[in-house]
Amino acid sequence: MIGGMTDRRTFEELVAEADAAPTEGWDFSWFEGRATEERPSWGYQRAMGERMAVARAALDIQTGGGEVLAGVPKRPALCVATEAWPPNVAKASALLHPLGTVVVADPEEPPLPFGDGVFDLVVSRHPVVPYFAEIARVLAPGGTYFAQHVGPASAAEVTDYFLGAEPRTGREPEVERARAEAAGLEIVRLRTERLRMEFFDVGAVVHFLRKVIWMVPGFTVEAYLPRLRELHAEIEAKGPFVAHSSRTLFEARRPA
Predict the structure, then answer these.
(1) Most buried of 9, 37, 41, 254 (most Cβ within 10 A)?
(2) CATH number of residue 99's parent domain
(3) Structural domain harbouring 219
(4) Residue 138 included in any domain
């Protein structure tokens, strides 16, 4: 997300606009001028592109709308992406098919619809759950899994505001390390960063919660209208609502 301060509009106008905005894909350009988020220092798309350029066969798991994969300068001759949500499947297909990448509609849960050892590179940006046993199975010996995971307690300030503050577990890098190693993968690199987020108006929060649906499960404007009004008043009085995302760079290898 990028941008700066937005113009002053009424609560009803901001919420109605955000509630009507489309949410398919992982294009966050809607947030320009409405919210900001720091980017991890490792530059995932650039680093992924470097690995794609030398891969023989690559798989992008849970590609979303295909925007990240489409942004790399060179893909291998065999390049496949999977996605579960039908609107994203349609968007990714329209974007990636002209680039020679096949998009497969596939549930997030195992098994992956590919044979053993097919890919020398498997990538994923923000997988809901990384199923390491399946990743290891479809990787060729010596192949690499290169991903950016959502880290622990990501944007917890947003979740806490709507659901109440409480300890939140999951996405711990060392737990993921153990699961990957149990699946037979060797960890090459594991690094986590916390990154500042700012929401300049309540509409940006509404759109964020509609797009990132696991933050506040079952979120609707109607269900949280009183809390949204309170948030609008706080932003008007105090300035941007601040949260912190968490991202983990995860690189592993199937032993040769």
Answers:
(1) 254
(2) 3.40.50.150
(3) 11-253
(4) yes
What confidence category does residue 25 fall into, taking pLDDT thresholds of 50, 70 and 90?
A: confident
- The total domain count for the chain is 1
In DSSP notation, the chain reads ----PPP---HHHHHHHHHHS---SS--GGGTTTEEEPPPTT-HHHHHHHHHTT-SEEEESS-TTSHHHHTSS---SEEEEEE-SHHHHHHHHHHHGGGT-EEEE--SSSPPSS-TT-EEEEEEES-SS--HHHHHHHEEEEEEEEEEEE-TTTTHHHHHHHH---------HHHHHHHHHHTTPEEEEEEEEEEEEEE-SHHHHHHHHHHSTTSSTT--TTTTHHHHHHHHHHHHHH--EEEEEEEEEEEEE---
Cα(89)–Cα(250) distance, integer angstroms? 25
Length of the chain: 256
Tokens of 114: 């590919």
Closest CA to 195 of 60, 82, 39: 39
Quote the pLDDT of residue 3: 40
pLDDT tens sequence across 143-197: 999 999 999 999 999 999 999 998 888 899 999 999 999 999 999 999 999 999 9
- Considering only CA atoms, which of 94, 46, 92, 45 is closest in space to residue 66? 92
Q: How far apart are CA 175 and CA 180, in angstroms?
A: 9
